[in-house]
Design goal:
The protein has 454 residues and is α/β, with parallel strands linked by helices. Helix content is 36%, strand content 15%.
Length: 454
Amino acid sequence: MTAPMPTFPAGFRWGVSTSAYQIEGAATADGRGRSIWDTFAHTPGRIADGSTGDVACDHYHRHREDVALLAGLGVSAYRFSVAWPRVLPTGSGAVVPAGLDFYERLVDDLLAAGIDPVATLFHWDLPQPLQDRGGWLARDTASHFAEYADAVAARLGDRVKLWITLNEPFIHLSLGHGTGAHAPGQALLLDALPVAHHQLLGHGLAVAALRARSTAPVAIANNYSPVVPAGRTDADRAAAAAYHALHNRLCTDPLLGRGYPPGFDPTEVPTGTPAVVRDGDLDVIAAPLDVLGVNYYHPSAVRAGTPDDPLPFELVPLTGHPRTAFDWPVVPDGLRDLLVGLRTEYGDALPPIQVTENGCAYDDVPDTRGRVHDPERIAYLDGHLRAVHAAIAAGVEVTGYFVWSLLDNWEWAEGFTKRFGLTHVDFATQRRTPKSSYTWFRDVVTRPTPDQPA
């Protein structure tokens, strides 16, 4: 029998996360503009099953049904993202009131249900007109992002309970601009480093815009992956250190006032090339954070590359662990090690942490009675929550945990082939069916806390 889940601190924030392009649909409704993911998904060969996010989970029209799911789950917070092209179709200029009207309805319905709205401003859906002008390779995009943040905060700043500026800037850099596996589909490898700087600069400018309009705390959500050498050679250890600097430190060191890690510093540009980092940029980026969002899925194994490889490392499968339907290793202790490692690495500079994404994909199929049993997901979440508790016991200030995701959704380049939800979605009918993991998580989050008698 599984041991009882340990008790989390009073006031611990329990939530679930989603993102706009993955669930909203309504791709052309109410003046919404085109995003880079609209363009990418409609390009043949880019998406595993040939699908798009045009309809996704139709959350734009069904958000009240989804708020009812949240209320039934008993969570205290819901992390959603605002679609930049729904608010500013060209990325800047005139605001579309109908776009903000939708998010106002969502926020008000969440508050009426006793659920804290946690708003992410950028979850990878850059307006296509900004991409046409250079996207995140162009410095002006950072200023446009601050303009967008100001527009959202002007409408919602009195009701949103936590702002998250960017979701996973490293993943958007690496998959969107390094390898081309995600929108906008650029394969620039390390020549994409200016994308990291301009995203972080946009974050810093947005922090100022949000704080001018709202008293709610401000965060960023970074993806982290503990790195292990795949071999025992000095070269493998050096490769692991290099990948750790790129994946984990590139978008954390400058946020916490350390500048960029050696080897991946966009201030180091060839002679005659315009400087990417200008005077004062690092101060803007290092604006104090109220919360650091941590997204964790799995560790990474790395070995040394060959002299002919374009990068100083090579990612290889991490063996010896169960695997999800995404073929990701299931390593709950990696989350504990990550959280403790962040505290060790950054010390007092580290703000309170909230785990803003953690979850798993499995091939969940309804049984003959329409029920969806997903014991693998329950085991995954159980192990990872225990890892969070162990990190708290070790002295790490972790104040919240969000499951990815409330709903099965459109999973980026994998289309509808990967299911992460606590709720099963039949994409043909849009029928929502809570899985057994939904009930399990509800029971975890609704237990009495230490200051709350049973």
